Amino acid sequence: MPKVAFYTLGCKLNFSETSSVGEQFLNSGFDLVEFDKNADVYVVNTCTVTENAEKDCRNIVRKALRQNPNAYIAVTGCYAQLRPEEISKIEGVDAVFGSNEKFDIINIAGDFQKQDLSCIHVSPTEELNSFHSAHSTEADSRTRAFFKVQDGCDYKCSFCTIPLARGKSRSLEIDKTVTQFKGLLDQGYKEIILTGVNVGDYGKSFGTDFYQLLVNLLKIEGEFRLRISSIEPNLLTDEIIELVKNDPRLCNHFHIPLQSGSSKILQLMRRRYKTNDYKDLVSKAVERIRDLGIGVDVIVGFPGETEDDFMETYNFIKDLPIMYLHVFTYSERPDTDAISYPATVDIRERKRRNNMLRILSEKKRSVFNKLMVGKELDVLFESEEKDGLIFGFASNYVRVQVPFDADLINQFVKVKIKGANGKICTAEVIKNTNLSTNIAV
Question: Cα–Cα distance between 339 and 160 in angstroms, integer?
Fold first, then answer.
């Protein structure tokens, strides 16, 4: 059997799409191997958010060619959609596939023979109007699946190239979403993470919204829970908050991008809310939903961000009742408005600010975990065993460990938190929990 290997950069959405492309290769008679093994075909799924996209791509291609100098190298993803000519000049790359074409590599590539010149298969951005279904799983277990329900973005943030790489917002119809969701449950997955570029924007092209999608999915019988990967603050509605409050199968966990705690910088970024809006939303959600865990995206070093602006962000986040941060260092992106903004921040200063917020994130997580001590949480345990322990996530995204017991794998288990050690909470098992009996829709 011919062998194929994949390398994925970027977000969970990219991983879900890589998994779907991989399934096509398997169905075509390929054997799937790890990227550091000898393969006949290597597929690199790129990301435009990566700070050194071209450098990363070159290094990954070189790694593949060290395994097999005669291998067919295909590069796809957001960076491939935006910069196909650059990628085609990387030595060893045989073909570049755009955001549409990535889902048809098998048919386009043909016999996967090494090429003297790279072939470019990239549709214009304005033609990115089809929705391609995708889902992925975590490599070490069959407990959690990432399920793509939305793609593209209609927002015009000044720092972002995603709308150019993925096109306009579009979604998978509710009936198809329900059918594919049931299929994932039939395969044994207990937690489904709904993913997309802008998940909260789901359904607007066919007259529905994300809340209605959640309601329809919660009508499905079975033992499972739903997690929202990330949702914009202006799209996290009171209806969604109440739904999470009332149904235990919706994880009491939100990841809500902030990007800056400075109203001035938010305006330069062209975000759709102000700091007071964000603060009020977080306060309302925490007040209504018990033990709610909140994650936050933030960008440091945006053009025009002074030390005062950064400290405003730092103090704003410090005072929020959140759980953790994802911190990104601003880097210039071609074809964005922000690249022409004056008052750029020195690279060393960007990294210093990044480090400060990462330390703050660790403190936030530690404080949140300590608040869980003595509480009972429902945990979905994975198959991983390390040093005699088994690990899982609580509904609010707290990471939990207990002594290894194979009977706990892929089960919802009620535990009592006994201690908090950095990023991990230690616990004792109380009993198994059947979430299917707790429907509150």
Answer: 10
